[in-house]
TrEMBL record:
<protein>
    <submittedName>
        <fullName>Enoyl-CoA hydratase</fullName>
    </submittedName>
</protein>
<dbReference type="InterPro" id="IPR029045">
    <property type="entry name" value="ClpP/crotonase-like_dom_sf"/>
</dbReference>
<keyword id="KW-0456">Lyase</keyword>
<dbReference type="Pfam" id="PF00378">
    <property type="entry name" value="ECH_1"/>
</dbReference>
<comment type="similarity">
    <text>Belongs to the enoyl-CoA hydratase/isomerase family.</text>
</comment>
<keyword id="KW-0443">Lipid metabolism</keyword>
<dbReference type="InterPro" id="IPR018376">
    <property type="entry name" value="Enoyl-CoA_hyd/isom_CS"/>
</dbReference>
<keyword id="KW-0276">Fatty acid metabolism</keyword>
<dbReference type="InterPro" id="IPR001753">
    <property type="entry name" value="Enoyl-CoA_hydra/iso"/>
</dbReference>
<comment type="function">
    <text>Could possibly oxidize fatty acids using specific components.</text>
</comment>
Length: 244
């Protein structure tokens, strides 16, 4: 489910659910944490995160019901926070599309390399769910406020070339180019890069939710609209949202 390859001071951590487009479920998050534990124990400096097959990560696995489990979503957010605190530099190699939580996985990384055929989309509003402040702020920081609104509020999909122009992608290239990019980082001064990481990640995206913001977020995840969206997806029809 999660592959791990050690290469000198670099570790490749790979989603290995190509049949499910590398969608996240509770087992994947447990395995990801273990892979990152191993990378720390191995003393690597750079972690490359990528997907097996044609997709990077299709987000939370709706078929498993994970999207309805608040405990699962909280474990995902804890993983993102942990990754941002690590001293290791994380490179997300988007070998294909990233959707929803897959985009969050890309944004928790320090640098991103996108395959020419990669794209990002956060269709939460089509699924009756919403995203947290951290996700919004990270996206806003990487693509700008106007484009963040398009991605979140209009559910627009952005391709690799547009994302390179906006600054979300640090490089557009294939898997080998992504690996060469990551290998190059291992030859740079570790203390310098660790300091840069700490400075970039210690920003307004890490602000705590206010009580009002938390209530509003939880109201969406507890809504009838979310349950309707899940049922509609199973029944292969458009959901009918009623705002409750």
């Amino acid at each position: 489910m999660i592959g791990y390859t050690l290469e000198d001071r670099l570790a490749i951590v790979e989603f290995q659910r190509p049949d499910a487009r590398n969608a996240l479920n509770p087992e994947i998050i447990v395995a990801l944490n273990k892979a990152f534990d191993r990378a720390v124990a191995d003393g690597v400096f750079v972690i490359v995160l990528r997907g097996q097959g044609s997709a990077f990560c299709a987000g939370a696995d709706l078929r498993s019901g994970a999207v309805l489990d608040k405990g699962f979503m909280e474990s995902v957010m804890r993983f993102y926070a942990r990754a941002e605190r690590l001293e290791q530099i994380i490179v997300a190699d988007l070998n294909g599309p990233a959707v929803g939580a897959g985009v969050q996985m890309a944004m928790m990384a320090d640098l991103r390399v996108l395959d020419p055929g990669a794209s990002i989309a956060i269709p939460a509003a089509k699924l009756g769910v919403t995203i947290d402040k951290w996700t919004l702020r990270r996206l806003e920081n990487l693509v700008g406020g106007g484009h963040a609104r398009s991605i979140l509020m209009a559910c627009k999909k952005y391709d690799a070339q547009t994302l390179e122009r906006l600054g979300f992608a640090n490089l557009v290239g294939d898997r080998e180019e992504a690996l060469e990019f990551a290998r190059g980082l291992t030859r740079l001064a570790p203390l310098s890069l660790r300091n840069y990481k700490a400075l970039f990640k210690n920003d307004y995206a890490r602000e705590r939710l206010s009580a009002v913001e938390a209530d509003r977020l939880h109201a969406v995840w507890d809504s009838d609209d979310l349950k309707e969206a899940v049922v509609a997806r199973i029944e292969k029809r458009d959901p009918v949202f009623r705002g409750r």
